[in-house]
């Protein structure tokens, strides 16, 4: 939001202790913009809840009917759900009755409807109010008025759209189509990475003690990356001396910055020459350098790409590691950074060798799964762990003896592992008494068998002399 155009500031500057926006330069941003509570509330209404597209989930999160995710559009809690006809709906996660959350979990499946836990009002997969507990009262008393209309008491609904497996939502009917909103240059960079279906690998949330705008600005700042992050500079993932560039949408809201893996030439020692802290080559190393191995999947040698869609969506590609970041404001001075880690689904087995050979000749056998480039090594390790069948084993496998009490198969002995050593004597004694009783029973049965063989005919047809 360009606060210079906020009429409430210019027409009545006395209403704010901060005064008007500085007129000297567009590059001068006063600190109060990141600290003022009234300004923060305006941002939530005029940015997140206005004519903008907000990322709400991945299509892979909700593949089936009734699958849902909960999220936020600014400070507005929302539910994103797959309908029976395959459509994706989004509505406010607040019950129309008392404003309680309709869904508490991060996601799941509800089959046909959501039900508010507070007063059991229920909603269908489109967010329409469908049921009210005791709507007609009890014994003619209480209940809703006869002219009550459920359709007028549903949560706010958002318009949704999908792009390359991403789901966006907006509250405004004036928001332009997503392709127009993003711009052709940045849109092309999204399609470059998300060129086939994805599989979600994990999700985590990182609370940050800062205003949400600072993180958005940080994402667009290409100057800091190799000067702040030792890992990126030392292993030459991104350096200012490498190739690359920045693409910006016509309105300035969306961007894509990228680094190309090309030789640095005469600038290869520039970081050392200027004694840049993050260049730790020769001092900072990995025990297993193979974690830096990557596969050229996109044919353009771009090894890092950071892309943003205003107001709070970020798509990252660092070698073969892909993730979506979402900025969720939590107050003037705090926010949540939600990261969804995913990988592209594998090509069909018959297509994979040809595609790999075309992307990088001579390496057709390399893995095309993000984060699992060492699949062949893992498979070999699994084979090495397998043991040949042992003679006399019941199921054709040898059972390795576990150390200590764990090798005993009795429950009592296994339970000892979780107890303090001081209690072992008591538990061990009880286990020993049970073992003694079992031995006595076996001895008794053996004695009775021997006695019957002496007094009666033997069950065996083998002569006693050969037994």
Briefly say what this structure is:
By secondary structure, the protein is an alpha+beta fold. Helix content is 24%, strand content 23%. Residues 1-6, 8-15, 348-374, 387-427 and 450-467 have low confidence and may be disordered.
Descriptive notes:
The structure is a single chain. This protein is α+β, with helices and mostly antiparallel strands and 467 residues long. Among the domains are: 126 residues, Rieske Iron-sulfur Protein; 159 residues, Naphthalene 1,2-dioxygenase Alpha Subunit, Chain A, domain 1 (Alpha-Beta Complex). It is built from 12 helices and 17 strands. The strands form 3 sheets. The chain has a 7-stranded antiparallel β-sheet, with no helix packed on it. A 7-stranded antiparallel β-sheet has the order 11-17-16-15-14-13-12. The chain has a 3-stranded antiparallel β-sheet with strand order 6-7-8, with no helix packed on it. The N and C termini lie far apart (98 Å).
Task: Record keyword descriptors for this entry.
single chain; 467 residues; alpha+beta; Rieske Iron-sulfur Protein; Naphthalene 1,2-dioxygenase Alpha Subunit, Chain A, domain 1; seven-stranded antiparallel beta sheet; 23% strand; disordered C terminus
Determine the oligomeric state from the structure: single chain
Largest sheet: 7 strands, antiparallel
Beta content comes to 15-25%
By helix and strand content, what is the structural category? alpha+beta
Roughly how many Å apart are the termini? Answer: 98 Å
| Strand neighbour order, sheet with most strands | 1-10-9-4-3-2-5
Mean pLDDT across every amino acid position: 80
CATH topology of one domain, anyone?
Answer: Naphthalene 1,2-dioxygenase Alpha Subunit, Chain A, domain 1
Going by CATH, what is the homologous superfamily of one domain? Answer: Naphthalene 1,2-dioxygenase Alpha Subunit, Chain A, domain 1
Helix and strand run = HHEEEEEEEEEEHHEHHHEEHEEEEHHHH
Q: What is the CATH class designation of one domain?
A: Alpha Beta
Q: Which shape, going by the Cα principal axes?
A: globular
Name the helicity range. 10-25%
């Amino acid at each position: 939001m360009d606060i210079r155009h906020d009429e409430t500031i210019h027409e009545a500057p006395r209403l704010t202790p901060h005064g008007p926006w500085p007129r000297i330069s567009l590059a001068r941003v006063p600190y109060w913009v990141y600290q003022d509570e009234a300004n923060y509330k305006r941002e939530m209404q005029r940015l997140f809840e206005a004519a903008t597209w907000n990322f709400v989930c991945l299509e892979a999160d909700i593949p089936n009917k009734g699958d849902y995710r909960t999220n936020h559009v600014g400070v507005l809690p929302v539910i994103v759900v797959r309908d029976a006809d395959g459509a994706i709906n989004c509505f406010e996660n607040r019950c129309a009755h008392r404003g309680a959350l309709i869904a508490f979990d991060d996601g799941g499946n509800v089959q046909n409807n959501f039900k508010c836990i507070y007063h059991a009002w229920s909603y269908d997969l489109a967010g329409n109010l469908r049921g009210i507990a005791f709507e007609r009262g009890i014994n003619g008393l209480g209940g809703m008025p006869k002219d009550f209309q459920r359709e007028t008491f549903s949560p706010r609904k958002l318009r949704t759209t999908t792009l390359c497996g991403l789901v966006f939502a907006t509250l405004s009917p004036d928001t332009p189509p997503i392709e127009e909103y993003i711009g052709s240059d940045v849109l092309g960079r999204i399609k470059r990475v998300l060129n086939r279906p994805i599989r979600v690998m994990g999700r985590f949330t990182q609370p940050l003690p800062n205003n949400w705008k600072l993180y958005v600005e940080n994402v667009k700042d290409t100057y800091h990356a190799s000067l702040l992050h030792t890992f990126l500079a030392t292993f030459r993932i991104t350096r200012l001396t490498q190739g690359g560039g920045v693409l910006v949408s016509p309105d300035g809201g969306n961007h894509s910055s990228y680094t190309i893996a090309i030789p640095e030439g005469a600038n290869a020692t520039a970081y050392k020459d200027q004694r840049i802290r993050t260049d730790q080559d020769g001092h900072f190393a990995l025990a297993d350098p193979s974690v830096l191995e990557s596969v050229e999947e996109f044919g353009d040698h771009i090894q890092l790409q950071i892309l943003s869609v205003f107001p709070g969506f970020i798509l990252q590609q660092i070698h073969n590691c892909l993730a979506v970041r979402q900025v969720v404001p939590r107050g003037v001075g705090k926010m949540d950074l939600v990261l969804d880690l995913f990988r592209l689904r594998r090509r069909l087995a018959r297509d994979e060798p040809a595609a790999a050979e075309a992307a990088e000749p001579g390496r057709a056998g390399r893995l095309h799964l993000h984060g699992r480039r060492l699949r062949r090594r893992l498979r070999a390790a699994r084979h090495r762990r397998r043991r040949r069948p042992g003679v006399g084993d019941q199921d054709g496998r040898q059972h390795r003896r576990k150390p200590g009490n764990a090798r005993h198969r009795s429950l009592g002995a296994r339970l000892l592992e979780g107890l303090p050593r001081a209690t072992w004597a008591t538990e061990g004694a009880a286990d020993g008494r049970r073992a003694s009783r079992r031995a006595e029973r076996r001895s008794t049965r053996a004695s009775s068998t021997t006695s019957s063989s002496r007094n009666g005919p033997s069950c065996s047809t083998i002569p006693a002399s050969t037994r």
